[in-house]
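ARCHIVE RECORD
Type: protein–small molecule complex
Small molecule: phosphoenolpyruvate
Source of inputs: curated submission
Record status: active
Notes field left blank by submitter.
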Amino acid sequence: MRGIIAAPGMAMASAHLVSEPEINVRKREISDVLEELERLRCALAECSSQIEGIMDSMDGSVDPQTIEILDFQLLLLEDTDFIGEIDSIVTGQSINAEYAVKSASENYMSKLNNITDNDYLRERAADVADLSQRLIAVLSGVDMEIAEPDEPYIAIGRDIAVSRVAVLDRDKLKGIILESGGVTSHCVILSRSLGIPCMIRTQGILGLANQGDTILLDAVSGEVIINPDLVRVQAYNDYAHKEEAKKTMLKEYVNRKSMSLDGAEMKVYANITMSSEAENVVHQGGEGVGLFRSELLFMAQTVTPPSEETQYAEYSKTAKALGDRPLVIRTLDIGGDKLISYMDIGEEENPFLGYRAIRYCLDHPEIFKPQISAIMRAGADGNVWMMFPMITCVDELIKAKQFVEQVGLDLREKGIPYDPNIKIGMMMETPAAAMDATILAKEVDFFSIGTNDLAQYLFAADRANSKLSYLNSPFQPALLRIINRISKAAAEAGIEVDICGQAAEVEALTPIWLAMGITNLSVSIPCVTSVRKRICQLDKADCVGLLEVVLNLETADEVEKVLIRFAERNIIHDN
Ligand code: PEP
Ligand code: MG
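STRUCTURE (tokenized, with ligand):
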């Protein structure tokens, strides 16, 4: 069967079908309304204590988002609108509490589901459905808990509710397969933070798999195989063996210094999109967050942008989870392919060349200022840095910095704690910025090279168009030459230069970044240790020689071949 890969990887274990208990809710007239309301009160109290019990039973490894959702369900049990509606259905129509809960939650969910342009909110409807299911089960005297198998398993369900996932044994849970589900559904977020594979929209799986069947979840090629044949099993065992050996070997690099054999340091940071990932960054040995993409917070809203308080809470939580490690928060990078309904960017012929990121923010102080304020306030709680996306010329940078100055004055006047010396940086994503790197370097504390966009704009090649991937290749010599130019300008100005685009995690290029004097590489969380291992195997002096050769090559193929040959020699040398 095929599905959509939501968290990559492979797993083989027995099927554990997680189905919702089927409770037939019938409408019943009641004679004693007060007695029914009392029955409802008792059920609400029982649900609260069940959810609190789930929270108490979770160990420290649980992700903060699970706690947030369970907290949301606890709040909903006390929400005067939601509970008031149930009460008034019972009272006004003299009908049973189960039916009233079902009606009130269906109303609530349909409001959330009608918000058609917001996946995040639509998926929160699942949390309401889960709560109402629990409430109805308690009212009907049905036990919600299901026995977990003793052996390792792959959980299979339609879209497994958070209160179910929260109690699953993390040691036995090897993968998740959902019939529905979206990329921001809770199971997906959880599987990513646990590092286990997950596939969604695997339609029909519940009808075909039986409890205890062997399931091969291949979230690399996007396939699920029920009761695989021996050839498949052997192929999986080989894969698992190699992965296990790799994981064990890479564990050694979690706490190692990111330093070459001859003592050159290049730190490894991670890229994240929400606070719940910060703990995993620390766990995997990330020395900081080099790119917090703040867009998701904005995309999760439907009508208005997230308030300053909401943003502050999220940034501050992330900063605190990272301790003294740097957290680079990028201000809103909207536009291009990332559209938000409540922001009126307007129809554009060429959105990637349009009114996006800093260009939009500079014209919209009502959006830009609260974000800057939230970032500066979070700076009082941790090691927070601020970064502007898509800066093309120095005027934009100066205007953005004026906002920072103004917001700082406002915060000081109001006596709100903030970091007055917050480090300010910019993404290097356009050829114009690279050409003027020397001028721009005078205005910032750091550059962070966004190789995804830099390649797109340098080669005039849409980064999402697979037919143009040869132009968006990280081995293109013109891209390497422009990055070299940027890093030289940074070195001359004495500022940091980081790489946070995809090319940062291409291990064949690690020697090139080391030779260029890149300060930090910011990569996806699973790549932190493997990139660090590569740095630890290198000798910077050799890499400088390699860089000289590479910068004089003419084609991407030549660059790739030279780098592969270097890696082979280097690895032999390392062994
Ligand atoms: C980049 O352009 O390389 C980058 C890191 O930013 P994004 O991928 O979010 O555009
Ligand atoms: Mg970019």
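CURATOR ANNOTATION: The first strand starts at residue 4 and ends at 7.
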